[in-house]
From TrEMBL:
Pfam families: Glycos_transf_2. InterPro entries: Glyco_trans_2-like, Glycosyltransferase_2. It is a multi-pass membrane protein. Residues 4-167 form the Glycosyltransferase 2-like domain. The chain crosses the membrane at residues 225-248, 260-285. It is found in: Membrane. The keyword Transit peptide does not apply. One of its GO terms (molecular function) is glycosyltransferase activity. This is Glycosyltransferase family 2 protein. Keywords: Glycosyltransferase, Membrane, Transferase, Transmembrane, Transmembrane helix.
Amino acid sequence: MKLSVVATLYQSENYISEFCRRATKSARSLSDDDYEIVLVNDGSPDNSLHVAVEITEKDPHIVVVDLSRNFGHHKAMMTGLSYAQGDQVFLVDSDLEEDPELVETFSKQMRDEGCDVVYGVQQRRKGNWFERWSGRWFYSLFKTLTGLTLPENVVTARLMSRRYVDALLSHREREVFMAGLWHITGFDQRPHAIKKHSTSTTTYTLRKKMSVLVNSVTSFSNAPLVGIFYIGLSISTLALCYIVYLVVYRVFLATPLSGWTSVMASIWLIGGMIISFIGIVGIYLSKIFSETKQRPYTIIRQVYGHRQN
């Protein structure tokens, strides 16, 4: 199969029909009749599944993978990629904020430049000043904590070669942060500036954004745990310095209340050492925890379309 188009569905019932029509037109222009469109229903609470299934009954090129519940955008994307069979895979959101026709532009650039991935980058980040500022802050913080320099303002839309997709799917960590996985998979990746439209209300609430931030940092860095260790070490050092100060003060300057010096010094010193030791143990536990928790990305309830049997 020449081309697979992969998209996720979540509150997408108003966009599915037009998305499929436009994606089908572009796919046919590139691969004639040798293509598929894989739609992953990520537990959408609206009528997205019903609308998508109706389309599969009319078009044998369209497949709907229905997940048992909402697993999250990133895990749904990985499920769709694992189900795609094309030599090239075009990943895009179904809400039409990214034009399905980008697959034609990306395909031309991939041929001309001989690269493995062409990914979209927003010319100007969508949203108000807070969203743009928080986006810049996120990338800066991520680079500081992990040492990885991610391309800024990337979007979902990207055209990928088969070997890149296979390599991407070889990552088996349970908590998925797609932007990080896209980057560390490597290969020859080229950006393409696009304009992202505002067609729908974002489903990424502040709580979800904070969750993505925490997940991204902890998935690619143990800096928080190392930070805890160094904080404890700093407290221990300050406690030792304070002990020296108290001894000098007691011997040469004055006599404090009986027992106060030893109590304060011991509390600070032991407290700092405990935090340091917890940080060290936490580093090892985090690695063991990540490796032993072998839950599946998602659970598929049913597949609709020409590959159902």
